[in-house]
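Aim 2 progress update. The chain analyzed this quarter is reproduced below.
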Amino acid sequence: MLLNEESGYFHQVPGWSLNCTVIGAALAELSLRHRIDTDTESLFLIDKSPTDMPILDPILAEIVDEPEQRSTRYWIERLAPHAETIVDTVLNDLVRRQFLEHHEGDYWTLARAAWEMETQADSDASGGVLFIKTRVHKVVLGGDIPDPRDAIAIALLNACNVIPYMVTLDEEAEERVKWVCQLDIIGRSIGEAVSSSIVGYHLQRSLVTKKIPRVALRKMLFNRHVSSGNLPALFADLAKQYGPVFELNPPVSKQSYIFLAGGETNQWMQRSGRLFLHSGEYLAGIEKVYGVSRTVHSADGADHFKFRKALQPSYSPNTLLRRLDEVYRNARQQMAPWNVGDVHDRSNFRLLVNAQMSPLLVSQDTQDTVTNLLKFKERALSTHVANALPKFMLKTPRMRRIGKLNQQVVKGIEADHTPGQRLGRPADIVDGYFALHANEPQFLPETDFSFPLGTALLTGMYLADMTSFTLYFLASNPDIYKRVQAEADALFADGDPSGEDLKLDKIDVTHRVLLEALRLTPITAFTMRNVMNSCNVAGYSLPLRARVVIAQTAAHYMEDIFPDPFTFDIDRYLPPRNEHMGPSYAPYGLGTHKCMGIRWSEIHITLNMLMLAHYFTFELVKPNRKLRINAFPTLSPSKRLKFVIKEKRHQVPA
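Predicted structure tokens:
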């Protein structure tokens, strides 16, 4: 009922209101199943037998165990903590039954099968066939006589003031809603109890919040993780000392930042961040550098969802899997000259991944320009987003030259993507942007092309740096390295693996190695937002316009979430541990801005690790040296991290 198809997520009902309404719905369902009965004063137990519904039986069990007869309002407030579990279970069930589709970033749309079912539904179909939105419209605006479920649903919707989202109410419709709410005794009693619980909560809730602790600068500067660049571990240490919300004024910045770090704040960000935080302000500087007014990274709400829907096919893993032959061929061209004794660092792996990615993303070979493009973007992020460098550092003669090169690359990409030249060629991310521009030129004008087209290539750099980190952990764990090589040899035994061969059961060890590497060295250690609506997080009030750092990967180094967090342990991701399930594992970000290309990234990095393991054995040049990480603007391996080819296990085909 709350799904907004344009924005891709749900009309937001305040948390307590939604919880009360969901519990009201569960109690109504129990009443319709003749387990309980209600009136305006009390809730009565009729039948103790379970319903065999996982979302209802825990609620029924609590009612059965209560020795005293209680009011409906009492039960709504007592059972409210169950609401989030019920919502999650129902959403998962609607996806499983193909009523809803779930997209990365916690976006939702009505599935095509569901649309077809409603479109084809007979006009005289029962309420069980037509969707609830249609039923509400028919009752409120069409004058249909509601069945008991419709009456209960409308009473609950009215209690939390949701009906105006679904129906344009005139005076007659408002009277119709009031009349329907009085029709059914169950709906009336539960609706009134929900309404009183909602109002009571707002009257009674405390406005007292804890003061946000301020981190002493020396505590940060002398932390053991600063020298290694391990920001997630640093944030975890500070959260352990100061709590999940703390304030810090970094030495390179004039601005103070509020940090959110830990499982509780990750949970809040995943569920509620979109309501209170805004993405645009902190990216305004870099957008000015590239001369654009808006990007997918800075847009929020319906605009961000529009970007994602247009670009999602370009980031789909199917785009990668359909062109595996190219990926293998381009990788081997880079690997063919590699020999025993050669020393490699991150630059080699960046060129390897770019050789694979640039034909897929922009349909061009960009090997001669991508290094400079990356330097410009890193400098722009460091000066205008992270504020780690003064802004004049982007205006040096060298950076000005690279900036002009960026413009030339964009013009070259545009010139290569005219309709005639694209005829019969696989669609890439540039085609996605151009299609969005053609359909809505005001939403995405030509002036906004320079940033997305010039930086589309650089997504491959994140994959490359993650490849370097993953190879480091393999080289540091020889036993696991041998298991990955055995997995790789089995896959390549009969030729190049197909998309079917890259299923998780066949790449299990390699995939778990990647998951653990992502935990220990996530490329995106944090994200930044500005507070646009007042909010409370973990008992702390975030002031309006404050700059907030979402340190989502701090949870990766918290012992209560990941036991022995500094140990490389790929068994974390096996049942029953499954430590990566839930928002505490967040290498790709959280909420609506979560990375679109998660599946592509994991398949691509895993595939490259399998190729490297099949053809070579790498060793660390200095195995006893502690891993050093460049912390800004994103986590990347230090140039001092070097590998040497110890063995060429198989000949790389030309």
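The chain has 27 helices and 18 strands. The longest helix spans residues 185-204. These observations will guide the mutagenesis experiments scheduled for the next reporting period.
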